[in-house]
Amino acid sequence: MSTESIGRVTRRSLLLGGAGLALTPSLGAWTARAAAPIDRRLAAGPTRARLAGTDRPETDVWAYNGTVPGPFVRLRQGEPVRIVVENRLDQDTTVHWHGIRLPNAMDGVPGLTQPPIMPGESFVYGFTPPDAGTFWYHPHANSLQQLGRGLAGAVIVEEREPVAVDRDLLWLIADWRLTSEARIAAGFGNPMEAAMSGRIGNTVTLNGAMPVDEPVRAGERIRLRLVNAALARIMALRFEGHRPVIVAIDGQPCDPHQPEGGRVLLGPAMRIDIVLDMQGEPGRRYKVVDDFYDGLAYRLTQLAYDEGAPLRAHPLDAPLDLPRNPLPEPEVGSAERHELTLQGGMMGGGALAGVGGMMGGMKGTGMAGMGGGAAWAINGMSMTGDGHAGMEPALTFQRGRSIVLTLRNETAWWHPMHFHGHSFRVFSRNGAPVPYRQWQDTVLMAPKDAVEVAFVADNPGDWMLHCHVMDHQMAGLMTVLRVA
Q: Which of 11, 113, 262, 350 is deepest in the core (most CB within 10 A)?
């Protein structure tokens, strides 16, 4: 992994040098390989989008390059990229390249890994993606509002050799809390929500718009990349009449398998690649339903079959396994072992008695979150916000050592725990082995779960570990792990 042309650039130099920088507007246009070197440009700023349907007003949003979601960034495994990010907001921002194993200085955490990008300024991110797969990008400054107002986009790193599918689709799913006038509702950082399930919206979009039918053809094989870009909403997708096969989780290939109970479970920030062999009836429509929350199921979209003859009579005769990425395998027998315990929240004891505060954390008294301070802690310590200079690590690892972490959720709430700069192998959940060789960067933990993960601490720097329910992160469910 290497960097190039790292740091800030002036607005004038960006305008002079940016004429040749472009982003691919959609996955459908990805037919030809771009010539090296790969240059990209993103500008974060205000715009308007029609989130609530064609018969509703447009919504004031924040977006990259004026689109929600931001442009799909297409990269190639092992080839360097240079991405200029310009800040047209009236507040500081950064970009975090979620799930990509890159140098610490490129990780996008203000204060911890880089200075914030101030209004009117720019920053150049340079890295070489080592892994093929599905990733995404979003701010790590004022995360709750900036992500909640639309700043997000997908990153696809292509395999070196094409995968045997007929089509490659991406669904970036987000939810929004809109008023009756289609405005983004106020109330970000509500203390009660911060101590419970977080800010769950009332409008779900697929690739930035109200979902419409997804056209498909009988007999084709589709690779569908699912990205959960919501602030807090957990999703469990059922594909009526179809048998999705999971082939990758968080960008990392796994043993192909059907999801438990037929539902594809996606916590915030997670990505899952599935393969769908389209064996439905021509001319028929099949629902895709999200039924994670009891009594609140809704139809996300429909698979709408063309009436024409099937592309082929039988499913494509090609393996479903994706080529593995160059992840170092941890030596579990000789690994260092540590425990991190998630604490706090409403209905789980409530008070953070004896908890130490940091960067605005609340020390020890009162109901969690109700005073606007820390609602959550890891091993008794709350780190609030988005990342700051002076965040002391909870654990320090020697570079190259194998590490086994046991994550214990002592709260009454679900938490998608994300580790920056690394992918980890998920070995066990509540004492039972986890099958299918699953590597993840965001592991979804149910209340009272205990999950054992392992990784090689091979990427030096100070790395955040935090809950990706953004209210939870901002209210203290965050820590730093150092690789020295």
A: 113
CA distances from 129 to 98, 155, 390 (A): 12, 11, 28
Q: Which CATH architecture has domain 7-158?
A: Sandwich (2.60)
Q: How confident is the model at residue 348 (pLDDT cuts 50, 70, 90)?
A: low
Q: Dump pLDDT digits (tens) for 253-267.
A: 999 999 999 999 999
The residues of the chain that CATH labels 2.60.40.420 are: 7-158, 167-305, 332-483
Check: CB of residue 84 under 8 Å from CB of residue 18. yes
In the predicted model, what is the mean pLDDT of residues 295-310? Answer: 96
Fold (CATH) for 167-305:
Immunoglobulin-like (2.60.40)
Question: Would you state the CATH architecture of domain 332-483?
Answer: Sandwich (2.60)
How far apart, in whole angstroms, are the C-alpha atoms of residue 221 and residue 79? 28
Per-residue pLDDT at 313: 87
3 state SS for the chain: CCCCCCEEECHHHHHHHCCCCCCCCCHHHCCCCCCCCEEEEEEEEEEEECCCCCCCCCEEEEEECCECCCCCEEEECCCCEEEEEEECCCCCECCEEECCCCCHHHCCCECCCECCECCCCEEEEEECCCCCEEEEEECCCCHHHHHHCCCCEEEEEECCCCCCCCEEEEEEEEEECECCCCCECCCCCCHHHHCCCCCCCCEEEECCECCCCEEECCCCEEEEEEEECCCCCCEEEEECCCCCEEEEECCEEEEEECCHHHEEEECCCCEEEEEEECCCCCCCEEEEEECCCCCCCEEEEEEEECCCCCCCCCCCCCCCCCCCCCCCCCCHHHCEEEEEEEEECCCCCCECCCCEEECCCCCCCCECCCCCCCCEEECCEEECCCCCCCCCCCEEECCCCEEEEEEEECCCCCEEEEECCCCEEEEEECCEECCCCCEECEEEECCCCEEEEEEECCCCEEEEEEECCHHHHHCCCEEEEEEC
- pTM for the structure as a whole: 0.89
